Amino acid sequence: MKNRLTLILLFFCSVNFSQQIAILKYKGGGDWYANPTALPNLIKFSNTNTNTFIDTDINTITLEDDTINNYPIIFMTGHGNVFFTNEEATNLKNYLISGGFLHISDNYGLDSYIRRELKKVFPKSEFQEIPNNHPIYNQTFNFTKGLPKIHEHDKKPAQGFGLFHKGRLVVFYDYESDLNDGWEDAAIHNNPEETRIKAFKMGSNIIEYAFKN
Predict the structure, then answer these.
(1) What is the pLDDT of residue 188?
(2) Taking the chain, what is the end-to-end CA distance rounded to the nearest angstrom?
(3) Residue 5 scores a pLDDT above 60
C-alpha cells in the first residue's frame, strides 16, 4: 500500500511539474520541420544530465495559437524563407516580453530571413553577439570559448547572437554552429560522438538558462 501511494504521488508530481517545449511552424516556405530527431534526443539528454523534467511529447505551434504562452521555450530551425504577418510579429513580441524564450538554430540558409522578420518584432533592436562569460554558456556545462562549432558549412566561426528586452535575453540565435544537426540521430550526419556531446551540452545549457530566466 505504501509503495502504491508513493507511485501515485510521483505520478502527480511528474504531471504537475513537467516542462514543455514547442516547435514553431512558420510561414514562408522554409522547412520548419527539419531535423525531426533533434529535439527528442536533446530532451532525453537534458532530462538525464540536468535538473529538467521536460515532457517528451513535443507539440508544434504557430504564432497564431492561443496556447503559445503554455510553452516557456519555443524552438525554430530551417534552411529557407521565414515570414511573419504583422499579427504574428505582435503575438511573438507579446510572448517574449511576457517571459517566453525563442531559440533559433540556423540550419544554414536561415540567416537573412530571420533577421528581416525579427525586425518586425523588435524594430529598434539589433542582434548582439553573446559574450563567452554570459550565463547561457555557464550552466551545468561550461563553454569558456562560447558557442561550439558542430556542423561545417562556410568555414565561418560559430556565433551566438541574442535579442534582449529590459536586460533579459529573450531570443538566442545559434549561427554557423548548427546545434540541431548535432542533436540528430548519430547515423544522419555522422558527426563524431565528441561533437554530438558538445551539441547536447550546449543545448541543455540553453534550456536551463531559459527556464531560470
Answers:
(1) 86
(2) 40
(3) no
